[in-house]
Amino acid sequence: MTTNHRFIFRILVALIIAFTGVSCDDHLDDLRENPNAVTSIDDAALFTKAVRSLFQGTTDQSAYRFSGHYGHYLVAGSTARIPDQYGDGFDGQYNDMFTGMYGGVIRHIEEVLQITSNTETKNELRYAMADVIAVLGYAKITDAFGEIPYTEGGKGKSADILQPKYDTQEFIYKDLIDRLSKSIQVIKTADPAMGYPDSDPIFNNNLNLWMRFANSVRLRLAMRLRFADTEFSSQVVSQCANEPLMESNDHNAFMIETEGNGNNWFTYRTGFPSIKMSAKLIEQLQQTNDPRLSVFVEPDGNGAYTGMTNGLNDAAFGSSNFAAKSDMGIALSSKDSELYLITAAEVWLLRAEAALAYDNDVARADEFYRSGLETALRQWELDEASINDFMATPHGSLMGVNDEEQIGVQTWLALIPNYFEGWSHIRRTGYPEIPQRTAPDLAKGVTNGILPKRFLYSSFELSANYNNVMEAISRQGDNKIDTAVWWDIKD
């Protein structure tokens, strides 16, 4: 290479580096100004992403490490089981769950809501469908933490809100219910062509199913307020009865994960640390001869069903022969096992609870209960004889004694494998009963053996949004895992 060539080459290299530097700086500036900016991205792709993130969230840390244990469904091995000892030293996990929901479901769905409400790209049906997904995302975050950024949540730098205020859970819940009511009215009369014909991973753009879905979620949220605001809850339950609800397993909101290793419970069951099913769950199924035992639980090496006791201290766990206990059932933990957001079985059982609580109509409650139980059994494709045999037992109908508890326990079972919702159900109803830990081999943690009631605001959130977090704490109560959220007031 001649001297002139070297000179020209150096100039070209310098120009390329300079141009690249300017381009990178411009790109970084764009990210600082609006990390969630949507330019050419289609809202359909964002909608699909948000929906998939919502389903994936049913198998995230909130289920694997926390609510799966708190709901007494499972026991994970190694360090993943530590939350089962009712400790609270999980700052990183609390932050990951908080930011993960906002960075996944909420971020994408807020972008969809923005696009579908803009004058140039307005689409009322797509907005209504997206709003149902947004409601489920926000409901999970507030159920986990209590007060959260809501009216200013998920907006980020695009709205110049770096420190969003926190809203009370009462306000959030009532607004979520109002949003669902508005979505239902849009969906019930809309033209399906205006929806997401090729981008709906739940119902393939079937608006009848979407209407049932939205109304069923509304019923779930209304019943969650049963003890916090009985009058409002009863009013909304009555409104739900006037619109179609989920009634058969064809109406279930489910998805099969097809990317990566598929359903995360497959990875948890086959990887390290492994998962064993809870002794409480197995005992409930065995005591009632429930045919779902073989669906939810795998036999151990001896062909028996043996569960792990939740909450063992380290010494007791070390001598428990954890590896020999029963695994999660294959139907729940295969690569192509279905993930659920809400099912017809849950909806029937909520209706049974409402009929008993609000109408004192035992006959109607029993009718709904039987529909819910049979639907729950059929969800897992049990043989007809097993279903009929169980429905003919005393457990197949309300027995007039502890009917609320019977409905509550069956709802707990019907929520499998949505373990986070199972924990929320227990917090709200007290069923199944999770006694305070007093046995010497059980860890009492920081709650004196009482079931945890929420996740903590992390140190990361406190440092980034201190004043707003502290205001929420001043209203809600101490930032502790045994501080109840607003709707959790049942004795």
TrEMBL record:
Annotated TM spans: none
Pfam family, one: SusD-like_2
SUPFAM superfamilies per record: TPR-like (SSF48452)
Listed name of the protein: SusD/RagB family nutrient-binding outer membrane lipoprotein
Biological source species: Zhouia amylolytica AD3
